[in-house]
Design a protein that fits this description.
By secondary structure, this protein is an alpha/beta fold. The protein contains 10 helices and 23 strands. A hairpin with a 2-residue loop joins strand 13 and strand 14. Helix 6 packs antiparallel against helix 7. The radius of gyration is 24 Å and the shape is globular. The chain starts with 9 loop residues before the first helix and ends with a strand. Bound molecules: flavin-adenine dinucleotide and NADP nicotinamide-adenine-dinucleotide phosphate. NADP nicotinamide-adenine-dinucleotide phosphate (NAP) binds next to helix 5.
């Protein structure tokens, strides 16, 4: 036993339930974790998926608003090895996407271990194994020991809630966009939507459609593009053009086309960043807004665009231009962040912001059996490409070793589980 783990860990090792996993541990049962599990299944590699929530795709099931649809055409959003049903529309609804994910998990016999939140994971140099500690909703602690660790906790694991002066004294309802479901409850109310990303725009639009009065805070610059140009998806057009043209030129063409479709967005208070939309996405990871109707509401004055916030006070917000608005509620559409640094004890592969240091397409494999899926800032299509690479990489080793009938032994496993 001494040579398996550091002596200092000995007591800790025996104080919790310890499970040897024959194959990789995948942390997260969102689209990325499911895609990786499905590809591993096809490679014949057993795995265990750990999920902090009580369901798969918890972001989609629990932390998104009702009117949400995929904003890219379906062919860019399906996961590997199982296409969307043919009768799905071009832009599937959130409900359809969840149904697809449920059937995906069923099809590939993926049964995550729910309510298991990974608290820490570290590589044990001595044994050459990963030690993954979880705590469940019943506060039971379990330690999983494995050779491969796949991080699939997502780019949007935690909500970003900025600390804005006076917000505690505001007195009205304050929620993050992840808690917002529909504008129904806000009828006739003055709502300040903080942020103008895809969430901020769509929440503002939804509020309008439910006869609320939204004011949307735009503190800096934003690229708004039409979702479609001449009936063709803007994203698809960009992908096509990128095959032939340099990025800077595609950016220029996109902006010209956006101008023809949407007009000059700057005249509505939506200043464009100096960098083009694709370059900004590639360098800063900032997604352009794909307009699905909010711009029309801004044009008609139904969504008021306001500058940054100075401070809140009781029932009021003061903006940086000195303007004061009376408001009933606040929706913080202020984005999300990765939570990897809070649990993964590693600093070579992942940077402090919770994303792999190496840019796409190199950020999927670290050292010592560590992998990352879904951190490409390229949505679901990026997750799929990571998943296939990871499964193939692990699958190659697995096949080689099982062919040689090499058996792995470990000095201590109280229980042995795997899904194969
Ligand atoms: C409102 C909204 C709309 C979006 N729409 C689109 C879209 O149309 N197209 C697109 O391509 N992308 C979209 N995205 C981006 C979205 O992040 C991806 O589509 C997709 O959900 C990423 O999948 P994932 O599995 O990487 O991450 P997630 O879906 O976030 O899944 C990660 C899972 O890991 C779990 N987890 C986190 N931490 C732990 C832990 N410590 N222990 C155990 N489990 C943990 C979470 O509970 C979660 O279930 C949208 C994002 C948001 C917020
Ligand atoms: N239908 C869809 O497919 C859909 C819908 C929603 C979201 N998404 C995806 O989900 C991800 C997250 O999107 P998101 O819109 O939630 O987040 P986001 O793109 O990160 O946008 C956050 C917004 O909040 C603003 N903000 C942050 N702190 C602020 C503060 N203190 N004061 C004022 N403004 C502040 C940011 O402004 P700055 O730019 O100035 O920082 C930005 O406008 C993206 O990948 C997005 O594409 C997709």
């Amino acid at each position: 036993m001494e040579n398996l783990f550091q002596l200092g860990d000995y007591e800790d090792f025996f104080s919790r339930r310890c499970i040897w996993v024959n194959g990789p541990v995948i942390v997260g049962a969102g689209p990325s974790g499911l895609a990786t599990a499905a590809c591993l299944r096809e490679e014949g590699v057993p795995f265990v998926v750990l999920e902090r929530a009580n369901c798969i795709a918890s972001l989609w099931q629990k932390r998104t608003y009702d009117r949400l649809k995929l904003h890219l055409p379906k062919q860019f959003c399906q996961l590997p090895k199982l296409p969307f049903p043919e009768d799905f529309p071009e832009y599937p609804t959130k409900r359809q996407f969840i149904e697809y994910l449920e059937s995906y998990a069923k099809h590939f016999e993926i049964n995550p271990k729910f309510n298991e939140c990974v608290q820490s994971a570290r590589y044990d140099e001595t044994s050459g194994l990963w030690r993954v500690k979880t705590v469940s909703s019943t506060r039971n602690e379990v330690e999983y020991i494995c050779r491969w660790l796949v991080v699939a906790t997502g780019e949007n694991a935690e909500c970003v809630t900025p600390d804005i002066q006076g917000l505690a004294d505001f007195g009205g309802q304050v929620m993050h966009a992840c808690e917002y479901k529909s504008g129904e409850k806000f009828k006739g109310k003055k709502v300040l939507v903080v942020g103008c990303g895809n969430s901020g725009m769509e929440v503002s639009l939804d509020l309008c459609n439910h006869n609320a009065n939204p004011a949307m805070v735009v503190r800096s610059a934003v690229h708004v593009l039409p979702r479609e140009i001449c009936g063709k998806s803007t994203f698809e057009l960009a992908v096509m053009m990128m095959k032939w043209l340099p990025l800077w030129l595609v950016d220029k063409l996109m902006l010209i086309m956006a101008w023809f479709v949407l007009g000059n967005t700057e005249s509505y208070g939506l200043k464009r960043p100096s960098m083009g939309p694709l370059q900004l996405k590639n360098t800063m990871g900032k997604t352009p807004v794909l307009d699905i109707g909010a711009l029309e509401k801004i044009r008609s004055g139904n969504i008021q665009v306001v500058p940054g916030i100075k401070r809140f006070s009781c029932g009021q917000v003061e903006l940086v231009n000195g303007q004061k608005l009376d408001i009933d509620s606040v929706v913080l559409a202020t984005g999300y962040r990765s939570n990897v640094p809070s649990w993964l004890q590693e600093s070579e592969f992942f940077s402090k912001n919770g994303f792999p240091k190496a840019p796409f397409p190199h950020g999927w494999r670290g050292k010592a059996g560590l992998y990352a899926v879904g951190f490409t800032k390229r949505g679901l299509s990026g997750a799929s490409s990571d998943a296939m690479r990871i499964a193939q990489d692990i699958g190659n080793v697995w096949k080689q070793e099982t062919k040689q009938k090499k058996t792995t032994t470990t000095a201590c496993h109280r229980r042995c589980i795997s899904q194969l």
